[in-house]
Amino acid sequence: MRDPVVVAIAANRFGLGARPGELDHIAPDPHGWLTAQLEGPAPLIADPALHDTVYVVSMIEETRKMNRDARAHAMKAGGAMAAADVGGVNNGAIFGPQYTAEVLARLQQGATTERPFVERIVQFWSNHFAVSVDKGDLAGLAGCYEREAIRPYVLGHFSELLLAAETHPAMLMYLDNFRSAGPQSAAASHIRHAGINENLAREILELHTLGVDGGYSQADVIAFARVISGWSIGTAEGGFAGGGLPGTFDFRSNLHEPGAQQVDGRVYEQAGQAQGRAVLDDLARNPATAHHIATKLARHFIADEPGDDTVRGIARSFIDSKGHLPTVYRSVVSQAQAWEQPLPKYKTPSDYVFSMYRALQLPATPPGKGAQGIFDTLGQRTWMPASPAGYPDRSADWDGGSALMKRLQWAGQMGRRFGATLDARQLAPQLLGATLTAATRTALDRAASGAQALLLLLASPEFLHR
Amino acid sequence: MKRREFLGSAALATAGSLLTRRVVFADTAGQSRLVVIVMRGAVDGLSAVPPVGDPDYVKLRGALAIATPGAADGALKLDGLFGLHPAFSFLQQSYVARELVVCHAVASGYRERSHFDGQNVLESGGVMPGTLDTGWLNRALDSLPRGATGGAPAVALGANVPLLLRGPVDVTSWSPTRLTAVDDDSLQRVAELYAGDPLLSKRLGEALAADAIARGTAEGLAGGMSGDATGMKPPARANRSRYDEVARAAAGFLRHDHGPRLAVFDTTGWDTHANEGGARGQLAQRFLELDAGLRTLKEQSGPAWRNTAVIAITEFGRTAAVNGTGGSDHGTGTVALLLGGAVNGGRMLADWPGLSQRALYQQRDLAPTLDLRAVLKGVLADHMGVPQHALDDEVFPDSGTIRPVRDLIRA
Description:
The structure holds 2 protein chains of 2 kinds. By secondary structure, chain A is mostly helical. In chain A, 55% of the residues lie in helices and 3% in strands. Chain A has a two-stranded antiparallel ribbon. In chain A, strands 3-4 form a two-stranded antiparallel ribbon.
């Protein structure tokens, strides 16, 4: 007979939170329920209302052209100072609707999916290879990026996911690589202000692969930046036109630094984009990367401070399987520490929203209704981390008093909306299973109204954690 | 039941309401207010406070260079060597009014270039990143004697408490809300539900205390800042600065008789790797927003400004030369701004190393000649009364050789 707490852990910590009936469905074989989700291709979001990357990049180019033309016009009329004063098109007005549609599609997916373990894995990688819409043009692209460069690859090999993320236009824009030109490149000699930009190279080493203690140096950052100079985006516009299909990855040899480079102790003599691919392949194979990824996975799925044995076990599976991600996820599921404590992690605002939607079986309201605003209200706007490191993943990062009060207020709102039709006393065991405490059950029994009971359930310590 | 009575009731005893457990500082610092503004993303100090009189400045900075004072879009004059970015009109007024000390070529002890680790060192006050999980400001509070009035001594304005304010001393966080308040009876039951969870109890207590202050502040302020039960409504005013709301909130909390004496908030958008702009452009826009926020902070502080010091700090600076994408990459030396009615201002604090190739740190960055901890120690000692031994051992561990900068605060 399975320990019933295991059932709740599978749905609420590895998944996105139980939907009513889900715990009963999982109960016969919770581990099997998790691993079965890893079979087959990753679930995609196919929503005809969403634009693809090529289209959004063309919109970005069009707005930039409008800005350039407006500035040129002002320059002719009033000189340099007038040109500098030109406000530029309103990114929010242009890309806002796409951003909203993407957030809602993703919310809908998470709220209804029967593969919530994979859905959580998608969110994990999207945050690991983070881009942020705080960089204006990316408001329309972040959703495309997650759908096209992350989602399809989460059940394959790490090296493929890595390449897809680093060659997507969103990443090349976010970390400024698309214009980066090597010092000896053809462009550097005849394009004014052309030069190298280290940002993407640094973050690949520090955040995406080896980790900050992974043993690379500033010289490696510079060399790697030269290796990936020329990793750019096809465009039809302006002085930068040329190359491949606009809005797709385009290797521009005129930006690329020619010659061999030494990165992390190895010399790379390949020409063209093969050089960068070779470096990425080696980074994917580096044990430091395995350890870094293992630590992050353990922190996300198991505990804020995972044990050394746990991390080592996951890293070992990463190395032995050559980065075969389903094998790595199975290793995470098999770690003893994962099943020792039911609710070690405090839900992030995003976790809380998805678990609420699943618990109450809410549809994401139609675009324009503002449902996406709840992420911002609770303190974690979708795809808007403050830095390329993505959103942090420890309780102390999210458990502030003011943030807690917002959750209570939203729970109160849900209570008022559904309290007359949903009986919290019936719902509680469906959501929390064996983690439901006697204290919470008593509080629900004694509630003054259906609305208050629902508030108490959704504000309970068990529902705030996973 | 009024919320205040409810907070005092026995039902909340386990929630640890901070209104029933009060804290104050020693008398000498009883009136002192401190605001710490964290500028996340590595602010370009060479643009914020351009060394216009430095012979190597213009050539290095290329398209980012600011013209000399008097020229079109030129810097605002500070002294013979330095100017302020033209966006900083309020800061210039503060300098003239002797309320601003501009620190330059300053850096923490951190010499790598990771935002993550740099901010960790900036906030933890440690020597190496990742060694401390508390902040220097919280440990500074911990070194001060407790007393008999007031609520939580510090407030973090924003959804969560940053590392800077985490630690042994209970602090509170607050941000405005657009959701309806939870009724008192339900709050009481939630508090009972949290009785077995010390962290949730504490957080709930802090949130309630902060809301009480915020509401009290909203009611008490003249000039029509009426708020709903939990929020302060910002004024209907066109062209509100990005930091207007948080600056008002900070001032509001610090004005309150039983409110906190420290406030902390974040500013962002400083990581200008591309298209930084010079006198105008992206970074200039950020400077305008910061300048407006600081002006609001002063205006809303009222008489409390006399006892207020504001310090704006960042994790490191940016490369001295413009990069290949019209911006600058991660660097080392940068600026820190110390502002307020309590500040002994109207001067630069800079031991300028110059920008020649020889003088640049690793041939790329402004070399730091002043440790940020020396400035922070000076402020904490003279403005907040933090004892010297605490500064050297607990607030900034292993920093005995770093002497506090004196005379930053008016006597």
